[in-house]
Amino acid sequence: MRKWEDLLSFSAVLLFFIFINIHADKLFFRIDLTEEKRFSINPATERLLEELPSEVTVDVYLDGPLNAEFEHLKLAIQETLDEFKVRSNGKLEYRFIDPNDFSDPRQKQQFQRSIIEKGIPQTTLFDVSANGEQTQRLIFPGALISYKGKQKGVLLLKGNKAKSAQEQINQSIEGVEYELASVIQDMVQSKSKRLAIVQGHDELAPQEIVEFSKAANNKYLVSWVEDLSLLKNFDAILVAQPKKKFSNRDKYHIDQYLIEGGNALFLMDKVQMNTDSIPLGGTYAFGYDLNIDDFLFRIGIRSNINLIQDQQAGLLELVTGNFGDKANIKKLPWPYYIYLNSFSEHPIVRNMDVVYGKFVSSLDTIKSPGMEKTPLLFTSNYSRIRKMPNLVSLDEIKEVNKKELFNSPHLAVAYLLEGKFKSLYANRFPPKGINPSTQIKSSTEKSKIIVVGDGDIIKNSINPLNGQIESIEFDRFRGQSLSNLEFIMNSLDYLMDDEGLIMARNKKVTLRPLDSFKIREEKSLWQWLNVGLPVLLTMLLGSLFIYMRKKRFER
């Protein structure tokens, strides 16, 4: 009887495990046990991958011999793509390609040139072996994403170049998910978000923001709008460096658009001057009256009539005399051209490289019930404020190195405001010609508004030597890559991102570096422990086994 009970129990357990195995493929789950959830992906990214309409292929060009830091980045990319592949139900495939793995130098050069043309710049990898031998190799830390015959390159080596190489790699690792997911989203989803670029107040013209216009048109349905009564048809508006007064009617339409849950990006210059007169002895700078300050006050921000100087400055070309029969041209730091590389932890600006501003004004917040205010960009430790009206002249270059003058650190120059607010026209009549019955006095939906104290961050300058448009992504004087376009596009993505994909930029991977001094001091000890201890334990256990066996048979 006992035998049959045991047999039945065994059969029941066996059948249970067979049942579990049959149905296990229908139950999918993954558990991320890491402290910072480094293997988890954003819910918006999950939805994007689960709803892929067709196959996506990702070619990653970070392969071949790499140092430890880039091997770490490669592993992070592979882990992210493994997760993408699982979440896409097999619709996403990837492979790693070594761009240097060619026997024919001509084919290698041609292949590498094609990668660069697809938007993946090369990086020179310097490495030092244990015996001190230095090696140099070109690598391409990026990927090419293909979908239905379309291809787009994405650079995966990002981060703030003011940080150490290890920190920059870590920042790149934190951004891998968003960089890949945002490009996939752009390729597989049709453009549906509408952006209005406000005109009619002497804002920047199309030829002055060529680079931004191209990027925006690739992602959004862009319109240049003068009749602001049409703003309700758009998901976000951009006001880029206005120089003429807003009429009360236009201000009312902006107010009502935002009251109804609209989104806006204001790039504001508060000080006007004739910059061509600066080399001719200086120019008098004074504030703009744009007739919009009361509205900005209402939402909780004040754009100050001042200019910021910073020791972290860009360069200005000046003729300092003659060298023989030729002009002696020098590049000198100009404190009004500011390198902004201090950021908050908000996903718009997290792990970004430097943003370049020219003639920047500071921003202050004021009480505005219902509005949450988040600073985004800051000046460096060594900055100062010059109140306007005032004289702006080249003599101020002489003061750049006077540390004691730059005693106003971390001035905020960009703010994000989110929430509901009361209309500027809640207790007054609307402008003439507008039906009061259509007026909305308090927010019906939450609005998202970004205000920046500089309009030049989006403006393409003209090179005076060749008349060519200069990129807002590169400073030719310092040879420095810039994040101006990335900042603007991230801002618009956040304003119009209903899915929350940009929140993937919040991923944080904690650096846990080993103590290099301790490694050198205790290297031999740990080597002996790792090699000798297992051998010693084996010998002890073997001896104990022999002794016990001998004792047993002696009986």
UniProtKB/TrEMBL annotation:
Transmembrane regions: 525-547
Keyword match Membrane: yes
Domain ABC-type uncharacterised transport system, first and last residues per copy: 193-491
Residue ranges constituting the DUF7088 domain according to the UniProt record: 35-146
Keyword Transmembrane helix in annotation: yes
Coiled coil (residue ranges): none
UniProt KW keywords: Membrane, Transmembrane, Transmembrane helix
This protein's name: Gliding motility-associated ABC transporter substrate-binding protein GldG
Organism field: Flammeovirga kamogawensis
Upper lineage: Bacteria, Pseudomonadati, Bacteroidota, Cytophagia, Cytophagales
Gene encoding the protein: gldG
